Structures are given as C-alpha cells and as structure tokens.
Amino acid sequence: MDNRTSIREMIETKRNSRNISSITETLIPKILLAIATISILTTIGIVITLLTETINFFRDVPFLDFYTGTELKPLGDHAQFGVLPLLTGTVLSSVIAMFVAIPIGLMAAIFLSEYASDRVRRTLKPILEILAGIPTIVYGFFAFTFVTPLLRSFIPALDPTNILSPGIVMGIMIIPMVASLSEDAMSSVPNSMREGALALGATKLEVTWKVVIPAAISGIIASFVLGISRAIGETMIVAIASGSNKNFTFDVTQSMQTMTAYIVEVTGGEAPAGSTIYYSLYAVAMTLFVFTLIMNLIAQYISRKYREEY
pTM of this prediction? Predict the structure, then answer.
C-alpha cells in the first residue's frame, strides 16, 4: 500500500507541476505583450498630445513665421514667435559638445580596445562610465561656477551665461557614450583581421586606423549620432549655464537659449493654460521630438547599411 500511495503522490505531483508550467507558459507571453503594448501606447499618447496642442498653436501663429522668424518675444502685446533663436542655440551647443566628445571619446575607445591590457581596461572603463552617472544638474553648476569663470580668464568678452561653456560640459558628459559604444564596435572586430595585418608588416597604429576603425565604422558613426541626439535633448546644463536670452546669433560667447531651456522656462508657471505662449511650449517640444527622431533614424540607417557581420 505504501508503494502504491507514494507512486500516486508522485504522479499527482508531476501532473500538478505540468499544470503550473502550462499556466505559466500561457501567462508569461500575455504579460510581456501587455508590457510592450503599454510602452507603445504611451509613445502614441505623447505624439497625439504634442500634435493636438501644436495644431492649436499654429491656429494663432503661421507655420512659416514660426520656423523662419528670428525674433522670439512670447510676452507682451506684440508677441513674436520665431523658433530660429532656439534652433540656433540648440545646434551650436550640440556642435560644440560633439567637437569635445568625438575626438576624446574615440581616442579613449581606441586605447581601451587596441592598446590597453585586460587589467587596465577593466579598471578604466568603469571609471570612464562613472561620468554617465553624474546628475546633469551637477554638470550644469559645474559649467556655471567653474568652466565659465575659467574660460573668461582667457576670453574676457565671454558673457557670464553663454553657449560655449555648457557646450563643452555637455561634450564631457557625452564622452562615456561615445567611448563605450565605439569601444564595443571595435572589440567586435575579429582578431584574425588584426593578426593578418600585423603579419603583412603593418604597425599597431596602421592596424588601428586602416583595419579596425574601417571595420567598426558603422558602430562608431552610430555612437556619434546618438551622442548628438543626447546633446540636443539635454536640459539642465543649458538651463543653468546658457542663460535665457533668446538671441539669434552665431557668437558662442553670448547668452543664448535652447529648445529644452525654453520648455523649462515656459513650464515655470508664467504661461496661463490656453494662451499662445502655452501652446508654443508644445510646438517647440514637437520640433525637438522631430529632431531627436531624425537623429535616431539616421543612426539606425547607418548601423544597418554599413554593419559588418563576423
């Protein structure tokens, strides 16, 4: 009887475990689908909100006037809404950031991938990536209280708030992204290609520049484009260090405002709901959204077109 009972219990236990496993296998895909659907619906909701409020803005302000106007004076009886001052500030700060991030990040990636030993790589890469974990508001105060006074000692004409200082600090912030993604792309190049080039008499530097970098160019360029996207969307650094003057100029020593800084200013509570300046917030946000989307699409296109399969 004991043997029969134990066998029945084993059979029942096995049957119950199979039922639980079957239920789990049925529920898990549905749960994952629900999570994925939530993220998709959230994105759709954001786009619909931006489009709806942007359309309300363009009922009061002509489309061409907004994207070709050089004056942005949202307050007063004769308000003017031209987004070019914000576009100029955004583009200049992003260009300055990439002039800092691309050479330093690429050189760091080359060192980590081609020259550093495993021990050095395991030590330096986490230290480099610590920069990515620093809050952006800390970078903003660093730009305002340290970088700007330092630059003014060399450039006396530099305004207390300017676009040069936050651009440089944004570049420092983006270095880990460029270095990490570029290093991953170069590390994926097979060692057989390096060994073959060395066997033909190439030097280490020639192997790096003529073999490894061309083979990893898709990942490297994608890291540059993603870095630009990160710079375009940066908020706190420019909000603190670049000022709020809506100047349409290409002089990086002057105070300028970016699209993200303008959004922060408008959401500060001075714009009553339903007013034109309130709706301008969404028009600028929609422009920023399109900018970032284009950058991400370019990065994906480059990655797919020039990707090397090894």
Answer: 0.82
